[in-house]
Amino acid sequence: MPQKKAIVVGAGIGGLATSIRLRSKGYEVEVFEASEKAGGKLNQMEEKGYRFDMGPSLFTLPKELDHVFETAGKNPRDYYDYEKLELITKYFYEDGTQIDAWAEPLRFAKELEEKTGETAAKALKVLKKSSEIYDITSHVFLERSLHKLSTYLRKDTLISILNLHRIDSMRTMHKANASQFNDPRVVQLFDRYATYNGSNPYEAPATLRIIPHLEFNIGAYFPKKGIYAIPTSLYSLATDLGIKFHFGEKVDEILVEDKAVRGIRIGENKHEAEVVVSNMDVVPTYRHLLSSQKAPEKILTQPRSSSALIFYWGIKDSFPDLDLHNIFFSQNYQEEFRYIWEEKSIYEDPTIYVHISSKCEKGDAPAGKENWFVMINVPANQGQDWESLISAARKNILSKLSRMLGKDIESLIEFEDRLTPELIESRTSSYQGALYGNSSNNKFAAFLRHPNFHRKIKGLYFVGGSVHPGGGIPLCLLSARIVGDLIE
Ligand code: FAD
């Protein structure tokens, strides 16, 4: 019997994982990718002896990645490996406080007690609540399609629905954290988790308190050779399985006839398939590849998640006080988010994230030097005057880091590049340069993401950070798992 054929549009993390899942089901699979390499937002740059992961830096839920290899009957350790972090993040405050977020919950809770006076018992209670929300929501909101009746007929779903009042969706994340802790530094630390999917802690539902569970109760990890090893290893598995990749091939149209997908078109060339999975952001998928189909406007016009401004700095010095992940907090968090979400601009004192992969992977920087990935959260691209915003932000970042680290940072930069919301949008077709698709500020956000399938076009599916269950590496991998489960 001839093999059924599937085409995947885009080789982002969701597209790669889907291609492998479909190949493992016996499909002949071809992947068409607009750029010259696999990975999408997971990209890397090598310059002047430095290597930088250009997109994600934090890796959680590695079992979801392992599962892709296992589904294909392979041992993930033959393709990539990772280590669990003992110290997840170092937090720096302008008043001189420094908090080490240890992976081990009791050690972290004791650190908070010692540095802020908040009792260890309180932090442990908050982490327990985080794990409870995860247990109630994960198999409904993360692991299955929210748009299939079969999901709601399962016993575990029914139990979760009966427990939905416990997921804390009626108040904001900030209100929930401020009700648990008196010390503003601890509230700020826990509020920050809203940014893990590009949301605003002063608007997003407290259900997002699920996120610390991933870091503290399950763990934060570092893939050996850096984050770019993730798409590289998936691509290597995919080619081992015989999946065919076409790089530099931008798909122009998804072909539909008689309410069924027929394949894709690139210029004059048509490629037939019974199944097409779009890993392109769902907004441009409808606007460009499905322009003759009715678009789900309510979903496509939801506010987008925040974007990012990143400076990649080759630093000709080393900083023993810094670790893999470092946060330099703003003094007025609420004002910082007001700027991002209301002014659609950048606050003069932004919270700065400094990721230094050479702390774990020595070869990522020349000896005695460090590769700094310096990121701030910024609004999605709505045509702001980015050049002037970025130039002001660069000055503010340099002056804050120099003040807090006691060294003139600008004079230590020997290589510099940057990534902006406009570049994220133009390089990956991510609408408005959003990092995580739609924002999760609305408590109904989970229901306002596009399903993983098209309700009226047979054979058409959607995967990746702009559709269910949302953005970030683990969720994109879960999205691929759901698509794999939906396709016979
Ligand atoms: P994408 O990465 O969006 O890739 C889509 C692919 O489709 C691209 O390769 C694009 O070229 C291709 N494409 C688009 N249109 C076409 C077309 N017409 N034809 C053919 N190909 C096309 N997540 C985390 O888990 N941890 C983090 O620390 C983290 N930090 C981040 C930091 C930054 C700066 C960024 C940008 C993202 C970060 N994320 C993080 C989010 C994470 O990177 C994304 O959610 C995830 O990579 C999205 O994957 P995706 O499958 O949706 O595909």
Structural features:
488 residues, alpha/beta, 7-stranded mixed sheet, 5-stranded parallel sheet, 16 helices, 20% strand, binds flavin-adenine dinucleotide
Protein model, in words:
The chain has about 500 residues and is of the alpha/beta class. It has helices at about 15-25, 60-70, 105-115, 120-140, 150, 155-160, 175-180, 185-190, 210-220, 230-240, 280-290, 295-300, 335-345, 385-405, 420-430, 475-485; strands spanning about 5-10, 30-35, 45, 50-55, 60, 80-85, 85-90, 100, 220-225, 245, 255, 260-265, 270, 275-280, 305-315, 325-330, 350-355, 370-380, 415-420, 460. The strands form five sheets. A seven-stranded mixed beta sheet has the order 8-7-16-17-18-15-19. Strands 10-2-1-14-20 form a five-stranded parallel beta sheet, with helices on one face. Strands 5-9-6 form a three-stranded antiparallel beta sheet.
Q: Would you summarize the structure shown here?
A:
The protein has 16 helices and 20 strands. The chain is α/β, with parallel strands linked by helices and 488 residues long.
Poorly predicted residue ranges: none
* β-sheet strand percentage: 15-25%
In the sheet with the most strands, the strands line up as 8-7-16-17-18-15-19
Shape: globular
* Number of E-state strands: 20
**Total count of helical runs of at least 4 residues:** 16
End-to-end Cα distance, whole Å, is 16 Å
Q: Output the radius of gyration.
A: 22 Å
Helix/strand/pairing category: alpha/beta
What compounds are bound to the protein?
flavin-adenine dinucleotide
Q: Into which percent range does the helicity of residues fall?
A: 25-40%
Largest β-sheet summary: 7 strands, mixed
Chain-averaged pLDDT: 96
